[in-house]
Amino acid sequence: MRLGIDLDGVVADFNGGWTRAYNADFGTSISAERVTEWDQIPSLTHFHHMGEFWRWARSLAGGSLFRHLDPYPEAIPALIRLAGDHDVIVVTTKPHWAELDTYQWLVDHGVPATEVHITRDKWLVDCDIFLDDAPHVLHRLVVERPSSVICRFVRPWNHPIGGAVDITGWSTFEAVVEEQASTLAQGQRG
After folding, report:
1. All residues at 6 or more sequence positions from 153 whose CB lies less than 8 Å from its CB, including other chains
2. Which residues pair with 87 in a beta bridge?
3. What is the spatial distance between Cα 66 and Cα 56, in angstroms, rounded to a whole number?
4. d(CA 101, CA 96)
5. Which of 67, 65, 62 is nearest to 105 (CA)?
6. I need a surface site. Which of 16, 74, 138, 162 has the fewest CB within 10 A?
7. What is the mean pLDDT of the chain?
8. What pLDDT does residue 128 have?
9. Which one, of 124, 121, 108, 89, lies nearest residue 7 by Cα?
């Protein structure tokens, strides 16, 4: 099967990364756990709007913010296991200035991607199962991809969405993938 996997908030710890970099640059002590809403950054920082944040994030020492994110602990091992039987399709949204850093991040962390799509219109990528954390993306995937399984990686900044399967960890996602693969195999035999 084709597994459409988001990066930030799913594989890469975006909030842990930006808070660590922000604290280092500005001498603050913001905890990633304080992020409980989508696009909450201006209310937690000195930035007046997300545009100011993105200007800062693109020019960190050694590359953009996206070059400096840590993967969530179980993400890469789970993707490696899944890639044994399925195609891991990275489907992520990035500013144009972060594309090269994104590709380098994937290589540096050994993400076993068959394809990489950097797009705002994730629903245009053909996948059997999608895993994402962005509320607006999940809503669109549910509407535009009714024959795909849409999985919401449960995070403080998103809420249940009708038509999406809640995923609380990588082992849960692996179980959903294997269940779908089994159902598909039974349907092909029957």
Report:
1. 6, 9, 10, 131, 132, 133, 167, 173
2. 2
3. 12
4. 10
5. 67
6. 162
7. 96
8. 97
9. 89
- Residue 91 pairs with which residues in a beta bridge? 117
Distance CA 178, CA 117 (A): 24
Q: How far is Cα of residue 34 from the mean position of the Cα atoms in its chain?
A: 19
- At 78-109, the pLDDT tens digits run 999 999 999 999 999 999 999 999 999 999 99
Amino acid 50 reads M
For the chain, give the percent of residues with pLDDT over 90: 94
Buried b (16+ CB within 10 A) or exposed e, 36-73: eeeeebeebbebeeeeebbebbbebeeebbbbbbebbe
In tens, the pLDDT along 46-66 reads: 999 999 999 999 999 888 999
Give the up-direction half-sphere exposure of residue 153: CA atoms within 13 A in the CB hemisphere.
24
Q: Which fold has domain 2-12+71-189?
A: Rossmann fold (3.40.50)
Q: Does residue 189 carry a pLDDT above 70?
A: no
